[in-house]
Specification:
heterodimer, A: alpha+beta, Ubiquitin-like (UB roll), Fumarate Reductase Iron-sulfur Protein, Chain B, domain 2, 2 domains, 5-stranded mixed beta sheet, elongated, disordered C terminus, B: alpha/beta, Flavocytochrome C3, Chain A, domain 1, Methane Monooxygenase Hydroxylase, Chain G, domain 1, 5-stranded parallel beta sheet, 14 helices
C-alpha cells in the first residue's frame, strides 16, 4: 500500500499493512523506514486531541482513520507548521484565554439538576484537536477570529448555572467573535466529538441579544452606504 | 528569581499543584513536553472516589478499608486516611470550579460502583471523567494567568549543595522541542508531575505514548529516592492487537470472558489483578481470550458501550454485537515512583513530586479504581502548597546558566552515536521481554536473564542514537531520550521484582506464590540498584 505524506514536499512511502489506522502506519514508517518523520500522538483512543491531520483534504484524527491506498496526508490548515505533520497550536489555544473560557469564580453549595448538566455535556467533550480551526473559512481570512472551539468553550461556561457573570464572557466574544461566523457548518462536519460549534455560536448570538448586543452588520446596515442617503 | 515554582508536567496533578502554588503567592511556570490537555489524565474514564453520603452503608472508614485491602498491606494507613478524609472536599472543589459531573435526580453528583468498592462512590462525568476534570483545571489555570511553556522535554533537575552538604534543587534543564535549544530555568522549588512509566512495556500498555517515566528517572539522577517500582497494575481487558483499553464497564454490564473453546474460566467481576492472572494462565496454555458482549444486544451496546464498540471496530475491525472481542491484559498504572514525605517532598530539598510519578503510598501493591484521580487532587494541593511555602523561604541564588553548555554537549554526543542499532526495535523487544517475564506472573530465573539482556541493551546505547540530526522538532531525538529513561527505570523494576521473594497484589512470583510478612515493607532502590526495605 502506498501513502503520500506532505513534508517539505510530498513523499511517498510504501507499507505492507492493511486495515490499520493512520497512526499505526505513521508509527511503522517512523520506526522502520524514516525516523525523521515528525507527527504528534498520545492516547491512541481519540481523547487527547494530539493527532489531527488532513487526509485527502479532510480533517481526521490519525488514531481513528483507516488508511487507504494512495491517501494524501497533510498537516492541519490555518496553523503554522512546525515540521511535517506537526503544527503550532499556541495561537489557537490562546483564543481560550482571550474569550475568557473559564468559570469566573468558584461557587459554594452547587446544586445542578440532570437537565442543568445535560445542557453542556456535549460541549465539554471537546478535545481541542484543532480540526475546526483547520476547516474554518473565517479563521482562514481573519487570524484574530476567536474560532470554533473557543466559542464552544464559552458556551459551555455561559450555559452553566454555576457561572455568576455570563455578561463578562459575552462581552469578550463580540469583536472577532460570534458575529463573524458565517454559520457554514464546516466545523460541525469535521468534529471527531460530534460537537457543533456553529450551533453553539447561534446560541451565543441569542444570549448576546439578551445582553443588548446585536449583529453589527444589521445595526450598521442603514448607514453603511455612508453617502448621506436617507435611512428607511 | 525569587519565589518561582516550576511544575514539570501538566496533567491533573501538575495543574492542581500549579493552582495551589499560585494561590499561595508563588510565581508559577508549568512546563510540559506536549500541551496540558493532551496528558494521560484525559484517559481516565471510571471516576474519582469520594464518600458524599452514607448510601449503601458507605463511610470514609469503608473507603479507607477498601483502599487498604486492595493495597495488600503495603499502603501507609495515615496517608490513605488523609486522602479518603479529604476526598469529599476535593470533589466539592472540582464541582465548585465547573467540572461537569453527571448528576442524580436529586441534583447531586452521580456516583457509581467500581471494582473493590463496597458502595457506589466514584463520581463520574459519563466515560470522560478524566478528560472533563483535566480540561476544567486547564481553563482555571488560564483564568489564573499562570504561565505555561509547551513542548519542552525535561532533561535534568539541577541541584547544588547547601552549607551542610545537603542537596537542593535550583532549576531545570529542558530541550525546547521546537527550537532544539537547551533551556536552563531557575527555580526556587520544583514539582515533578510527569506521570507513570507503563510505556516500558511498549505496546503492551494501555497508556499514552508519553508515559515514559521521564520525571522518575530524572529525579533519581538528581538524588531523589524511588520506591515500590515492581508494582505495575495490569488491566485485564485491552484489545489484543493495540492494547487499547476496553473499560471495566463492559464486564460490569454483564460481559463474559471466553477462551478459544468458548468456555468461561473466571468470575469476570473479581479484582483486576485476579482476572488478569486468570487470563494470563489461559494464554499460557495456548488459548486466545475474548470478551463476549454479544448477548447484551446491539441496542444495549450502542446505548451503554458506544466507545467500546467504536474502538473494537476501529482497531480489531469487528462488531461486538456479532463478534467476539480479542483481548489481553496490558500494563495500565504504575504504583511505584518517587519517594515523598507527608508534605510531598522528596529527599532533595525543594523538589516535590505528585501524581502517578510519585509514591504517596496510598495504592500499595494494587491501586483501587477511582483513587488515582483522587490522589492527584488531594496531593496536588499538598505539593503546590508545600512548594510555594518552600519557595517563599528560599534564599539561595546560584547562577546556573553555565549548565547550558554541559547539556548541549550531551545532546551533541548523542547525535554522534553510531545509529547501527534501531532503538525503536529495541524498545519493542524490551516491551515484549517485560510483558512476558516482568508482567502478571514472574519468576526469578527468567527475570535474571532479562536483567542481563537489559544491561546488554544499555551498554549498546552508543550504537543506537538517532539518524535524524536536525535541530528543530526532532522527535527521533526526544523519543531516544525517553527510551533511555525507560531503560533506566526498567532496570529498577527488574531489580525490585527479583528481590521481592513473595507475591503481593500486582507482583506475583510463580516461584514464591505466597505472601511473606517479611516483605510487608516498601522497596527502596538507589540509582546503583541497592535495595532496602522500609516502613
Amino acid at each position: 500500500m502506498k501513502i503520500n505524506i506532505k513534508r517539505d514536499s510530498v513523499v511517498e512511502y510504501e507499507v505492507q499493512m492493511q486495515d490499520k489506522t493512520l497512526l499505526e502506519v505513521l508509527n511503522e514508517i517512523k520506526s522502520n523506514q524514516d525516523p525523521s518523520l515528525a507527527y504528534s500522538s498520545g492516547c491512541r483512543s481519540s481523547v487527547c486531541g494530539s493527532c489531527a491531520v488532513r487526509v485527502n483534504g479532510r480533517e481526521v484524527l490519525s488514531c481513528s482513520y483507516h488508511v487507504k491506498d494512495g491517501d494524501l496526508v497533510e498537516p492541519l490548515n490555518n496553523t503554522p507548521i512546525l515540521r511535517d505533520l506537526v503544527v503550532d497550536m499556541d495561537k489557537a489555544y490562546s483564543f481560550n484565554t482571550k474569550a475568557k473560557a473559564w468559570q469566573s469564580l468558584p461557587v459554594d453549595n452547587v446544586s445542578l439538576s440532570i437537565d442543568n448538566q445535560k445542557i453542556n455535556e456535549l460541549q465539554s467533550d471537546c478535545i481541542l484537536c484543532g480540526s475546526c480551526y483547520s476547516v474554518c473559512p473565517v479563521y482562514a481570512v481573519n487570524s484574530e477570529f476567536l474560532g470554533p472551539f473557543s466559542l464552544t468553550r464559552v458556551w459551555r461556561y455561559v450555559s452553566d448555572k454555576r457561572e455568576a457573570n455570563p455578561k463578562e464572557k459575552i462581552d469578550a466574544i463580540q469583536a472577532n467573535g460570534v458575529w463573524d461566523c458565517t454559520l457554514c457548518n464546516e466545523c460541525t462536519l469535521v468534529c471527531p466529538q460530534e460537537i457543533s460549534s456553529k450551533a453553539d455560536i447561534e446560541k451565543l448570538r441569542a444570549k448576546s441579544s439578551v445582553f443588548g448586543y446585536m449583529d453589527p452588520s444589521f445595526s450598521s446596515f442603514g448607514s453603511s452606504f455612508g453617502d448621506g442617503s436617507p435611512i428607511f | 528569581m525569587k519565589n518561582r515554582v516550576i511544575i514539570i508536567g501538566a496533567g491533573g496533578a501538575g495543574l492542581v499543584a500549579a493552582l495551589n502554588a499560585h494561590e499561595n503567592g508563588a510565581e508559577v511556570t508549568i512546563i510540559t513536553k506536549e500541551y496540558p490537555t493532551r496528558s494521560q489524565t484525559c484517559m481516565a474514564q471510571g471516576g474519582i472516589n469520594a464518600v458524599l453520603s452514607d448510601k449503601e452503608g458507605d463511610s470514609v472508614e469503608v473507603h479507607v478499608q477498601n483502599t487498604l485491602k486492595s493495597a495488600n498491606g503495603l499502603a501507609d494507613e495515615r496517608a490513605v486516611r488523609h486522602m479518603c478524609q479529604e476526598a469529599p472536599k476535593a470533589v466539592t472543589w472540582l464541582d465548585s470550579i465547573g467540572v461537569p459531573f453527571s448528576r442524580t435526580a436529586e441534583s447531586g453528583i452521580a456516583q457509581r460502583k467500581l471494582g473493590g468498592a463496597y458502595a457506589p462512590r466514584a463520581c463520574y462525568a459519563q466515560d470522560y471523567t478524566g478528560l472533563k476534570i483535566l480540561h476544567t483545571l486547564y481553563d482555571r489555570v488560564l483564568g489564573a494567568k499562570i504561565e505555561i511553556l509547551n513542548e519542552r522535554h525535561l532533561l535534568e533537575f539541577i541541584t547544588e549543595l547547601d552549607e551542610s552538604g545537603k542537596k537542593y534543587v535550583c532549576g531545570v534543564s529542558l530541550l525546547n522541542k521546537r527550537s532544539g535549544e537547551i533551556e536552563i530555568h531557575d527555580a526556587s522549588s520544583v514539582v515533578v508531575a510527569t506521570g507513570g512509566y507503563s510505556r516500558v512495556y511498549h505496546n503492551y500498555s494501555t497508556n499514552s505514548v508519553s508515559s515514559s517515566g521521564d520525571g522518575v528517572a530524572a529525579a533519581l539522577r538528581a538524588g531523589a529516592r524511588v520506591s515500590d517500582m515492581e508494582f505495575v497494575q495490569f488491566h485485564p481487558t485491552a484489545l489484543k492487537e493495540s492494547s487499547i483499553l476496553i473499560s471495566e464497564s463492559a464486564r460490569g454490564a454483564g460481559g463474559h470472558l471466553l477462551n478459544s473453546k468458548g468456555e468461561r474460566f473466571v468470575d469476570e467481576l473479581l479484582p483486576r489483578d485476579e482476572v488478569s492472572k486468570a487470563i494470563h494462565d489461559e494464554i499460557a496454555k495456548g488459548e486466545e481470550i475474548y470478551l463476549d458482549i454479544r448477548h447484551l444486544g446491539a441496542e444495549f451496546i450502542q446505548r451503554e458501550l458506544p466507545q467500546e464498540a467504536k474502538l473494537a471496530k476501529l482497531y480489531e475491525n469487528i462488531d461486538p454485537a456479532v463478534d467476539l472481542i480479542p483481548i489481553k491484559p496490558a500494563a495500565h498504572y504504575t504504583m511505584g515512583g518517587i519517594e515523598v514525605d507527608e508534605n510531598s517532598s522528596t529527599c532533595v530539598k525543594g523538589l516535590f513530586a505528585v501524581g502517578e510519578c510519585a509514591n504517596h503510598k496510598v495504592h500499595g501493591a494494587n491501586r483501587l479504581g477511582g483513587n488515582s484521580l483522587l490522589e492527584l487532587v488531594v496531593f496536588g494541593r499538598q505539593a503546590g502548597v508545600s512548594a510555594a511555602k518552600y519557595a517563599d523561604s528560599f534564599k539561595k541564588h546560584t547562577d546556573i546558566s553555565g549548565h547550558k553548555s554541559i547539556f548541549e554537549k550531551e545532546i551533541d554526543e548523542i547525535k554522534r552515536y553510531t545509529n547501527k542499532i534501531n532503538f525503536y526495535k529495541e524498545h519493542e523487544r524490551l516491551g515484549e521481554l517485560f510483558y512476558k517475564n516482568v508482567g502478571i506472573k514472574r519468576q526469578k530465573d527468567s527475570m535474571l536473564r532479562v536483567l542481563e539482556m537489559l544491561r546488554e541493551m544499555k551498554s549498546t546505547l552508543p550504537q543506537m542514537g538517532v539518524s535524524d540530526k536536525t535541530k528543530e522538532y526532532n522527535t527521533n531525538l526526544t523519543e531516544f531520550l525517553e527510551f533511555k529513561n525507560m531503560l533506566q527505570i526498567g532496570e529498577l523494576i527488574l531489580l525490585s521484582a527479583i528481590n521481592r521473594d513473595e507475591s503481593r497484589g500486582a507482583h506475583f512470583r510463580i516461584d514464591a506464590p505466597a505472601v511473606d510478612e517479611k516483605y510487608r515493607a516498601h522497596t527502596i532502590i538507589s540509582i546503583d540498584g541497592e535495595i532496602s526495605y522500609e516502613n
